[in-house]
Each structure stands twice: as C-alpha cells, then as structure tokens.
Write a structure and sequence with these properties.
By secondary structure, the protein is α/β, with parallel strands linked by helices. The protein contains 2 helices and 24 strands.
C-alpha cells in the first residue's frame, strides 16, 4: 500500500482526496495519511474524513510517504517542490479513473489529472501539472511543469505550453500555438496567436492585456 500526504487542505486538496478514493474503487491500493496545511486553525480537524495533521514541518515523521501538492498557485507549488525536493522525497500523481489518457502520452510526477480530462496521443506533460475537470489536451501537446490548465480548457494539436502557465476556465487554443513561460490566459479566451513569456492575454481573439516585468 502507498501512503500519501496531501499538501494543501483547500479545494484542490479535497479534489485530490476524492480522486484517490475513486482510484481505490478501481482497484488501486492508496491510503491518504492526512492533509498538511499552514492554517493552524484547522490542524487536528477532519476534512472529507481525512485529518489535517499539521504543516509541512512534520514531513520528517513520514519519510516513506509520497507527497502531492494540491495548491492551484503555480509559483507556490514550484517553491514547495524545490524546498522539499532537496530531501529526495517522492511525489505522487493522482489520475481520476474517468480521465482518458493515451498510452503514448507521458505524465510527470506530482501531477493532478481530474475527472473527465482527456490527454491525447504523443503528449508530454511535465511535473506538478494540474489538468483540471473536463479539460482536453490534444495530440502532440507539450505542457511545461507547474502549469495549471483549468476546467473546460481545450487545446488543439501540437500546442506548446511553457512552464508555470495558467489557462483559465473554458479557454480554447488553436493548433500549433506556443505559449510562453509564466503567462496567463483569461477565462473563456480564444487564443489564435503565440503568447509571449509572462504576458496576460484575454478575449476572443485573445489580445495582450498586460505584460509582466521580470
């Protein structure tokens, strides 16, 4: 049996716990040890029948447990991975049984693949990526680590998505588009042109709303 610690006891954490429960119903053998969260007010409480054990300072008590970081903020997720990854901890990927994933697709460690997601042939999904409910990632997509693809997003074939990108609910991306690192795409946008690194775009067709200063 694999034992899992879920970092983050908010909405994403509850969804991860539900995914693992669904995996077990399909014959997997995974036990959630508990949630870890910085909010001391919920320490000791149970959420979805899973106890909040404390914050990440207690990781050393469970050295053999795998970890999944259930936080929607890409930058925070990356920072936590870098901090705890130095200790050589293993990460768990949660894949809902209703997700459809091609055998030729590659999924990195620490990912969260939600109910109804579709990942088509020859896709390469990086580490600690969130593919949220009902999102579809078409053939030959490259998705960088720490990216969050929100519910109902649809990408065409041969799309390249950089690291730490956020794509808002219901956005659509036409084939062969390149989306730069740490860019953001607004809810419901239709992306028909390449997106520069750090840009925030929105609309139909999507246009630059602002650019991030580095």
């Amino acid at each position: 049996m694999e034992h899992i610690l879920i970092l983050g006891a908010g909405g994403h954490g509850i969804v991860v716990a539900d995914i693992i429960n669904s995996m077990n119903e399909q014959g997997h053998n995974v036990s959630v040890r508990g949630f870890l969260d910085d909010d001391s007010k919920i320490h000791g409480q149970s959420l979805s029948e899973i106890k909040v054990l404390g914050n990440d300072t207690i990781l050393e008590e469970y050295t053999d447990d795998k970890i999944i970081i259930a936080l929607g903020d890409n930058a925070v997720r990356k920072k936590i991975v870098h901090n705890i990854g130095k200790a050589g901890r293993a990460f768990f990927t949660a894949i809902h049984p209703s997700a459809v994933i091609s055998p030729s697709a590659q999924i990195g460690q620490g990912c969260m693949i939600c109910a109804g997601a579709v990942i088509n042939p020859e896709c390469n999904i990086g580490d600690h990526v969130i593919i949220n409910t009902g999102a579809t990632v078409d053939h030959h997509n490259q998705v960088g680590s720490y990216t969050h693809i929100a519910p109902g997003v649809h990408t065409g074939g041969e799309v390249t998505i950089g690291e730490g990108v956020f794509i808002g609910i219901g956005a659509s991306i036409v084939p062969r588009i390149r989306i730069g690192d740490r860019s953001r795409i607004a809810i419901g946008s239709v992306v028909t042109r390449n997106v520069e690194e750090g840009a925030f775009v929105g609309g139909s067709p999507a246009r630059v709303i602002r650019k991030r200063e580095f």
